[in-house]
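Hello,

Following up on my earlier ticket. Below are the two sequence lines again, exactly as submitted.
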Amino acid sequence: MSRIVILGAGIAGHVAASHLRRKLPKEHEVVVVSPNSNYQWIPSNIWVGIGRMKPKDILFPLAPLYAKKHIDYKQAKAISFYPEGDAEELKPYVLAEYVAGANKGTTEKVTYDYLINATGPKLNFEATEGLSPGKNKTHSVCTYTHADEAWNALNDLIQQMKQGKKAKILIGTGHAKATCQGAAFEYILNVEQELRRHKVRDMAQITWISNEYHLGDFGMDGMLMSYGSNIMKSSEMVEMIFEDRGISWILGVGVNKIEDGVAQYETLEGDYKTESYDFAMLIPSFSGHGFKAYNKDGKDITNKLFKGFMIVDADYTPKPYEEWSVQDWPETYQNPLYPNIFAPGIAFAPPHSISKPLKSKNGTDITPAPPRTGMPSGITAKLVADNIIEMIKHSNNELHHKGSMGNMGAACIASAGFGMTKGSGVSITTYPIVPDYNKYPDTQGRKLGKTFGTIGLAGHWLKLALHHAFIYKAKMKPFWWLIPE
Amino acid sequence: MTRRISKYKRFLMMNPIIQFFKFIYLSIKIMVVVAGGHGGTREIN
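Thanks for your patience. The regenerated structure is below:
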């Protein structure tokens, strides 16, 4: 009998738990440890942030589902890792603290045979002074509660605009090394459409602020894509959309301080500037959770397990941008020191960024961090689950399932406005996610036929269809496994 | 030069009948890209 412990119940954690439970006989234990009581379909948060969906539409409670599916669930947060056990406990374990229920505040040594760290990112608002959801007129759409608060504030502003107030809206990244530009991109287009729907668009000046050097970088170094019968850069496509929507932009900047209605930022030229606003949605930087790790003698081995996020089978050797390659990126998400520990999704430490690293003249890194959200999270979690299943069933340590982001496609269906007849979506697929300049030297590292973009109503329908399909899948309803990650 | 979206293009983008077929086409095309598999990058052929 094996015991597989999964830390986190987001996209990666839940995908891993559901596949493990479906494919492993009942004598093996699948345990999920997560401080969250609900599963949330994060890609739909932007629709909560414009009031077109309620939080209840994008979440469901985990406990009843896990009880029904024979997955052990502990509403607790991981504190520290003991991959060799300790003097009293011979098995490896994670120390977890319960955050709800009768055991709230108590800790437990959760032992495991295999551990999947799918804890995702810490939303590191503290890294930007004054950036906090609901304060200083800044908001976030990173969680459904944040998104709901954002909508309340935006709705207040819309009502004021209906009374004649002119408003400035600022949306983008709130840190020099933030990622998830895609979510901010979706939100700015949805906000713009909602202002038109409420007939106050002419009262608002909408500005995109980002650490990207070019529009459409998305933390992936931009892309060359097929667009209808044309070939265009993602920067041209996004520029076309922003021009069409009357959105202005500030690029290559790191927001470093927020005051009430004022964002301070540094440019690549080394200048310090400010931008005022009445409503802002700024994505914070993501960081690891600050977990500690100890060996069996109680010695601190945190740096053997973590490099901010968890160390996996990537090549972390520091090297210049010109020497980066897809081979640097992990394939199995297995920790090299402890082969029974894996970290899919956002929890693994990337070897470096994907976008070209840039510094301001003052030496500040202003570079988007690499995205690993959504589809890559699901795919990497499933392959980790499949490898663990094979390790258990065949009692060997060979890993046959591999999925490097340098050999993986992704679809980003970015909502550009909500509505069955008035909605719009920007559908972009990319193959591979990490550009392979050796394999595709003439097309900026990507395969053109599989890297394409399109804009239109169908994109909205597709995003809505995916919303329902993935919530169906997450609820593990009949034949859920037929829906790919 | 910045490209803008022409009235004709906008008509194509927002026409429900055209977009219905686009929806079917996109669903299949995206499925092909995404479900088309993934793998490692370090094996030498």
